[in-house]
């Protein structure tokens, strides 16, 4: 019996790569292919939902109370009753403003208006066709089309396994000796070879080129499946107690419930004017959420940068006195340490929007490669010893065989 020349480390590495890749392949395929669609959701919404846009005018936006009054009159005509609005959201100078209200548990409606005139543009009673499609896409990406409590750990576990397969795949890909021949095999696809060789090269070469971006997309996505991973990730980056995507351990600040009377009329206008005085320039988004319970504060989310959310910060104000309440979430991006800035960028990195259209395109192709790798990896395994092809394709060259999923695009919204 011929003894294998491979070291024990190599044999264990290849065994792990093969079987872990086969075990997680279907989940990784779904996560990656849905990521390809999710990357361009904003572009699709821009062209399919024209009510989100207005013609910019050389005049200021109307105050929140004025817009809320117009929205209230419109909704009363529609519903034959007054409703309690939960938020009002302003956008950039070319975006409509919308108010949100809740008719029943979990069912929200929105009234889109021209921020300059208050004219009603659209009454949104549910998800648009494009939005419903992306809700479906996200359910596959985040939960494998299962209930969140079941699907989220399944996706997170598959992505953790994927991290291992990327590392083992790189080790398997790496040749014992670098020669001109191994360089050609490692970095180029031999398109004129038979289909098995082309499939092998697609798996190895594309997996290698996608590796670094795939690692970033995967790690930034796992934080949305496991709180323990998110806490560890936050600590590694910042060296501080956890205050990540699940919120600080103390939770959001609360209003003083001993103060029962409001000291100011039209508090939403006062808060809006306060923010606009401090930040008079163009804002990508300014959203005011109204208190529901006695302990709830006014919550203002401010995003100064269009196309990303990492510069978004939140401010909290007592609902009766309008005293600002301190919160970790109120710190601006510029005030953060390097590790905190990187953590704040997590979602934008994960969905590819951190650098605008170029990084979106990059995330799309890496996700597409990620979806292809379980398929090409399975074909390598399935046909590894079958007739009609050279057995040496299992990989005789130590340059790859199995980066069986080298790219994933995981997310959100979070």
Automatic annotation (TrEMBL):
Coiled coil: none annotated. Pfam families: PepSY_TM (PF03929). InterPro entries: PepSY-ass_TM. Keywords: Membrane, Transmembrane, Transmembrane helix. It comes from the Bacteria. The chain crosses the membrane at residues 20-40, 154-174, 206-226, 361-383. This is PepSY domain-containing protein. It comes from Larkinella knui. The lineage of its organism: Bacteria, Pseudomonadati, Bacteroidota, Cytophagia, Cytophagales.
């Amino acid at each position: 019996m011929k003894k294998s020349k491979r070291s024990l480390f190599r044999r264990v590495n290849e065994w792990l790569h093969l079987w872990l890749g086969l075990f997680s392949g279907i989940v990784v395929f779904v996560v990656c292919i849905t990521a390809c669609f999710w990357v361009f959701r904003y572009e699709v919404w821009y062209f399919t939902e024209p009510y989100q846009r207005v013609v910019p005018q050389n005049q200021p936006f109307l105050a929140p109370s004025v817009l809320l009054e117009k929205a209230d009159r419109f909704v009363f005509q529609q519903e034959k009753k007054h409703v309690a609005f939960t938020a009002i959201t302003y956008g950039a100078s070319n975006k409509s403003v919308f108010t949100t209200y809740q008719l029943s548990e979990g069912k929200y409606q929105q009234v889109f208006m021209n921020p300059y005139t208050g004219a009603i543009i659209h009454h949104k009673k549910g998800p648009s066709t494009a939005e419903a499609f992306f809700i479906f896409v996200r359910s596959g990406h985040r939960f494998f089309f299962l209930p969140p409590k079941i699907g989220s750990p399944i996706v997170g576990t598959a992505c953790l396994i994927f991290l291992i397969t990327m590392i083992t795949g790189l080790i398997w890909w790496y040749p014992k000796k670098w020669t001109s021949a191994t360089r050609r095999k490692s970095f180029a696809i031999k398109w004129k070879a038979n289909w098995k060789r082309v499939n092998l090269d697609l798996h190895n070469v594309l997996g290698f080129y996608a590796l670094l971006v795939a690692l970033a997309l995967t790690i930034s996505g796992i934080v949305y499946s496991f709180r323990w991973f998110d806490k560890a990730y936050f600590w590694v980056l910042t060296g501080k107690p956890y205050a990540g995507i699940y919120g600080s351990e103390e939770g959001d600040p609360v209003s003083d419930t001993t103060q029962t009377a409001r000291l100011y009329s039209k508090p939403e206008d006062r808060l809006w004017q306060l923010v606009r005085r401090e930040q008079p320039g163009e804002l990508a988004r300014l959203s005011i959420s109204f208190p529901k319970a006695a302990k709830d504060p006014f919550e203002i989310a401010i995003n100064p940068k269009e196309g990303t959310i990492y510069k978004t910060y939140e401010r909290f104000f007592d609902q009766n006195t309008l005293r600002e309440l301190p919160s970790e979430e109120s710190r601006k991006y510029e005030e953060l340490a390097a590790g905190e800035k990187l953590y704040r960028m997590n979602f934008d990195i994960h969905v590819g929007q951190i650098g605008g259209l170029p990084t979106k395109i990059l995330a799309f192709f890496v996700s597409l490669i990620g979806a292809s790798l379980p398929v090409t990896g399975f074909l390598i395994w399935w046909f590894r010893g079958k007739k009609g092809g050279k057995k040496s394709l299992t990989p005789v060259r130590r340059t790859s065989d199995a980066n069986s999923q080298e790219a994933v695009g995981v997310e959100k919204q979070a």
